[in-house]
Amino acid sequence: MTRQEAEIILQRTFKLSKFYDEQWLTIDKILKGERVLLIEKTGFGKSLCFQFPATIFKGTTVIFSPLIALMRDQVSKLTALGIAAKCINSEQTPEENAQIISDAKQGKIQILYIAPERQENSDWIEATRQLNLSMVVVDEAHCISVWGHDFRPAFKRIINLVKLLPTGLPVLATTATATKRVELDVAQQIGNNIQTIRGNLMRDNFKLYVIKVSSQEEKMMWLGRYMNKIPGTGILYTGTRVDTEIFSKWFEHLNISSTAYNAGLDPISRIAIENGLMSNQWKCIISTNALGMGIDKPDIRFIIHTQIPQSPIHYYQEIGRAGRDGEPCYIVLFYNPDDKKLPEAFIEGSRPSIKKYEKVIAVVKSELLGEKEIMKRSNLKQNQIRVIKADLMEQGIIREVMIGRSKKYEYVRNSQPLNTQAFEDLRKAKFDDLEKMIEYVETDKSRMKFLCDYLGDTSNHTFTNCDNTGEKRITVTVTPEWSGKLQNFWENYFPILEVESKGSHIVNGVAASYYGVSNVGAALHASKYEHGGDYPDFLLKLVLKAFRNKFGQERFDLVVHVPPTQSGDLVRNFATKMAQVLKFPISHELIKSRETEKQKVFENNYLKSENVKGAFFLPHPNEVHGKSVLLIDDIFDSGATVKEIGKYLTELGAIKIAPIVIAKTVGGDIV
Amino acid sequence: MRNEETPYWLALAHLPRWGHLKINNLIIKFFHENKISIDEFFQLSESDWKNQYQLDEKQISDLNQAKSEIASNAFLAESFISQGFEIIPITSPEYSKTLKNNLKTTYSPAVLYVKGNKKILDEKSIAIVGSRNASETALKFTDNIAKLASVEYKVVVSGFAKGVDKQALDSAINYNGQSIIVLPQGIMTFGSGFNKYYKQIIEGNVLVLSTFFPKAPWNAGLAMARNPIIYGLADEIYVAESAENSGTWSGVIDGLRKDRKIYVRQPDTDEKNANHLLIQKGAIAVDFNGTELPRSGDQSNNAPNDSESLKETKQTILFE
Questions:
Q1: Which CATH number is associated with domain B118-310?
Q2: Residue of A132, A399, A413 lying closest to B204 (CB–CB)
Q3: What's the number of domains chain A is made of?
Q4: Same structural domain for residues A18 and A96?
């Protein structure tokens, strides 16, 4: 097929007049059954490079994509063009997915989007045998490489699949963000004479700024002051989930229209926020980097980071979501030298200790187990288990097997011992990348050029689109007015304890502060671990304020406090003072019926819940029967203790249990 | 074998209505005579298939059908490989020599699907077969033969059915011996079995083997088709107990037809099974320890060459 012939079909099917040269170059190779790795910036039109050939081919094109939002979006666009496209994903019902599989088997689907994880599903494997496969596409192909910014173990299997495809079956791998190293890694892994086509990555509609500050407060003040002055709508990226909450409460306090988003939200809320983003429902969405990958909104006018990402490639990927329409957009990065600690902790914490690896290997050797069972037996956090599992699979020490419908992990007979050098190399590479990110902050040359160079795009273009090359520099001035506003905010901001659950009369409670965000954590630590005596009175005042904020003038029939694991009257004394001020009766009768370990010994929630399960006892149940209870503790972490007491008191007939604590830990869920 | 060949072998090994002989002859031709790999064979043109391989239209159409499935087989192949299953084609030096010697081109399956310690296939081996509801005596005999085999470092081959098969496996494990489980189903459907024998598999004492399409569920036909594989994998065959016209019975008859030496436990006079009948048909009577018993004159006069007439002409060994 000549380009001219193809463009006639293009007009008919896609209502587009022409291909870009690089698009045609790619399509031409695909039509000849070759393998191509295509690196082009967001908004280039990579999708057309597989969608067009897919409509020419007789069979079904399978596209592996990690992003459900993107799949949905592309399927609806293709459907509107009258092209038979569908996606199979975990958010659809099994019946919907089964129907799509059955349509695909009958050749009714030209383009089929699936998540790489689908390769673990035996119904899918069964179905593929009757599929007339015309092409395989690996979208976001940088996920294949451990040297990229978003390595995903499930992609490993996709690579193995691609290697098993016969010569002559076209394969297209695409990405918008790949350094030279990632490019070579991906090309080498896919192999079979894959050819790389790389476009330029420059985005000259970006206006790039770095704002150097010396505290979180300065970021908050600047944003408070200028957010509504930035044109259009956009995204504010924070480093942690807790920060999304803090910034969104701050904006709420200032009447700036915003909403918070993170990966922990349920799918319905996530989709609602994604839709709200599309329709400009808010001035800005405050999110961890979980938002945005694959959201195809042409007019995101600004992207602001309150925290430096781990590497320039992370940064490029995240800001790449702005200004797809080519119109100007503001790209702002805040930097406080202290901010380095978070990505450093991420890198350091991204791999558990070698001992933990060995523990998992020993557990897996002893029995064929699933993830939860491994968690229980090794006393490790789920995210640690997942990292360890992925590494052990990568090194061929364990493998994932399906026993019926459940996933188990099997030790590989005669496998090599754990190679820790590989971890060391990766760790070093990540620290080098972080250094590069800081170089981006510190550079006095073109920031766009810096990013392009880093990504291996050696364009000679002259850039004038950053605060080093013509745009104004931004600094933050602290004014008494804004200091006052911030002070006022902190004194009225109380984190919610989410503990409500079915079958228990416990209600969501409140904390006076986050542990670590203010001076509260230090005060707690001094009393608890440094023999600082009773908790100081300012904590009492703050907790009382949190009480009024959450419960107003509500009266409780009884104050109960959590009994300590080890001897110590800190919580007892604190609760007594609270009860005195609030004029509620207090009971000291709740005790532990058996020894428990300190909760912080346990690394995962299963073990935390099991540690406290059935561990509490109240000698005279009448004390709480028919009553509302205010339950006091000092620190709230997983909530397992409070929930267990809530359940127990519910069984004894309490009609309401409301927890209140001094501080809530930031917890393990960062993104 | 290269992993890349897996989708091709999946396509070639189960060509419908070809039978082992036709498939094997084709493999001999491209692999031994023309010295090309399976993927190269599938890339040949139809005219090459016709002229070089003398394939007729029906065969070419079957091969084209198989070829069209190779791309989609990649999905199954990936799942298969990632779960630690392996495919041993008949062209591989890892393919069981015992099996090849016993079954020849006519009956050797083109591929073996396995999980576990493949080295077990090189060891001396015995099979113990028998009824699903065997008597206590038969089970004791099974246990004893498995024990003796384990002491002599012989691998016990069994079929993973109830009764004698299960006893043979459990005893071999119990006596720290090695075992081959020959499945009456596709290897990817053995789920809970892998759970049960996990330790033995990772320690290298059990090899699970199947010759059927990896996703094929159990059925009676496959259970029957598995019997010759059990016999073929073993240097010696012991029958603990057989009823007349049972699965075991047809297996033994088939083995005798293929000129195999088959040892049958000498039944007590009051036993109601067909052991005696099998001995009359040419199987060799053995005692509790598997020691050959002298043939009684009465037996040697009776239908001596019943099995002789069923024998096939010996074939040359073609896959070495």
A1: 3.40.50.450
A2: A413
A3: 4
A4: yes
- The phi and psi torsions of A496 (rounded to 5 degrees) equal -85, 145
Distance to chain B for A357, nearest Cα, Å? 19
CB contacts, 8 Å: B82 with chain A: 157, 160, 399-400
pLDDT in tens, A496-540: 898 998 889 999 999 998 886 667 878 888 888 888 889 999 999
pTM of the model: 0.80
- What was the ipTM of the complex prediction? 0.86
Q: Are strands B236-241 and B125-130 parallel, antiparallel or unpaired?
A: parallel
**Res B11 pLDDT > 80:** yes
Interface touch A401/B84, C-beta < 8 Å: yes
Helix (H, G, I), strand (E, B) or coil at B24: helix
Judged by a CB distance cut-off of 8 A, whether residue B189 touches chain A is no
Are A613 and A638 in contact by the 8 Å Cβ rule? The answer is: no
Domain boundary among A171, A198, A225: A198
Tell whether B117 is within 8 A of chain A (Cβ): yes
Chain A positions touching B199 (Cβ under 8 A) are 367
**Residue B84 with chain A: CB contacts under 8 Å:** 399, 401, 410, 412
From residue A289, how far is each of A10, A216, A251, A439, B191 by CA, in Å? 35, 19, 19, 21, 39
The range of the structural domain enclosing residue A408 comes to: 350-418
Q: Residue A164 above 80 pLDDT? A: yes
Q: Is A68 left (phi over 0), alpha (psi -120 to 50) or beta?
A: alpha
Write down the domain spans for chain B.
3-82, 118-310
The C-alpha of A270 sits at a distance from chain B's nearest C-alpha, in angstroms, of 32
Q: Which residue has the tokens 């550079």?
A: A443
Q: How far apart are CA B252 and CA B257, in angstroms?
A: 8
Summarize pLDDT for B118-155 with one digit per residue, the tens.
999 999 999 999 999 999 999 999 999 999 999 999 99
The C-alpha atoms of residue B96 and residue B234 are separated, in whole angstroms, by 10
Distance from the first to the final alpha carbon of chain B: 16
Residue A73 banded pLDDT, cuts 50, 70, 90: confident
CB atoms within 10 A of CB A648: 23
Count residue pairs from A and B with Cβ separation < 8 A: 95
Secondary structure in 3-state letters for A93-149 = CHHHHHHHHHHHHCCCCCEEEECHHHHHCHHHHHHHCCCCEEEEEECCHHHHCCCCC
| A657 torsion bin: left (phi>0), alpha (psi -120 to 50), beta (else) | beta
The per-residue pLDDT for range A251-285, each reduced to its tens digit, is: 999 999 999 998 888 888 888 998 899 999 999 99
